[in-house]
Automatic annotation (TrEMBL):
The chain crosses the membrane at residues 21-43, 83-103, 115-138, 150-169, 203-227, 247-270. It comes from the Bacteria. GO terms for cellular component: plasma membrane. Residues 79-270 form the ABC transmembrane type-1 domain. It is a multi-pass membrane protein. This is Carbohydrate ABC transporter membrane protein 2, CUT1 family. PANTHER family: ABC TRANSPORTER PERMEASE PROTEIN MG189-RELATED (PTHR43744:SF12), ABC TRANSPORTER PERMEASE PROTEIN MG189-RELATED-RELATED (PTHR43744).
Length: 283
């Protein structure tokens, strides 16, 4: 008799769908009620006394809060600045992190261990500990009060976490794929772009969504580096609306809806990819 055992069988398709449905229901129960209250509060007419209890359908329904949020907080200009920062920083960060993770996956084992340890040490350094030296560097270069300091972290992949995630993803690919690329005489860059990166699309989708949310909601860096009101991003514009009196709180909620909507759209677009289960053909 052969003593070779079988590995654990994958979950049946029906059980997998049930777990996905339960997970989706849990996410809806946690995140949908606050979003509903946020939208309903933004549709309340400004200037009225705050309601003692939340109202799902305010009476009367008014959209004047959005108009006042744009006028008082400068949300239109701030949205354009946030879009500009995200359009540059997010793709650049993902590309740099994926390229660095691919390089780590192809290094010699001893060199990989050294680089991996250095990455873990860098990951444990608090971001606030780097504010002073980064501010001194950008001020010396004359880049303060510009959007450059908000985009510059993307040149190093934004966070060592992104590099480590890509490293694990590329390391999990079969070695035969890399050997086939060597047989085809593909350069390391072409191997990364044509073979490795398409194979980890769910990871790319997840990190793209995460990078966008963190970049879009970044408040500390604009607060430190940006002083001109015309260069404010959405978090700074919302800060100016947060000081309104309670009767104008719907104006702040309207601004919060404007700031939250793009992140939700990106998450919805990305979730189909990073929750995707490959079929037998690997698609």
């Amino acid at each position: 008799m052969r003593g070779r055992g079988r590995g654990p069988s994958p979950l049946p398709e029906g059980a997998l769908r049930i777990w996905r449905t339960l997970g989706a229901a849990f996410v809806l129960l946690v995140f949908v009620p606050p979003l509903v209250l946020l939208v309903s509060g933004s549709l309340t007419e400004p200037g009225l006394p705050p309601s003692p209890t939340p109202q799902l359908v305010p009476e009367p329904v008014a959209t004047v809060g959005y108009q006042q949020a744009v006028e008082l907080g400068g949300l239109l200009r701030a949205s354009l600045n946030s879009v500009l920062v995200a359009v540059v920083a997010v793709p650049l960060s993902v590309l740099v992190a994926s390229l660095a993770g691919f390089a780590m996956a192809r290094l010699a084992p001893r060199t990989t261990a050294t680089v991996l340890a250095a990455s873990l040490v860098a990951l444990m350094v608090p971001a606030t500990a780097l504010l002073v030296p980064r501010f001194a560097i950008f001020r010396m270069l004359g880049l303060t009060d510009t959007l450059v300091p908000l985009v510059a972290p993307a040149l190093v992949g934004t966070s060592p976490l992104y590099v480590l995630v890509y490293y694990l993803a590329f390391r999990a690919l079969p070695a035969e794929l890399y050997d086939a690329c060597l047989v085809e005489d593909l350069s390391p860059v072409r191997t990364w772009w044509r073979m490795a990166l398409p194979m980890v699309r769910p990871v790319t989708a997840g990190l793209t969504a995460l990078t966008f949310v963190l970049t879009w909601s970044n408040f500390l860096d604009p607060l430190v580096y940006v002083y001109d009101r015309d260069l404010f991003t959405l978090p700074l514009a919302l800060r100016s609306l947060s000081v309104l009196d309670p009767t104008n709180f719907p104006v702040f909620l309207a601004g919060a809806v404007v700031a939250t909507a793009p992140a939700l759209v990106v998450f919805v677009l990305a979730q189909r990819r990073f929750l995707h289960t490959p079929d037998r053909n690997g698609r």
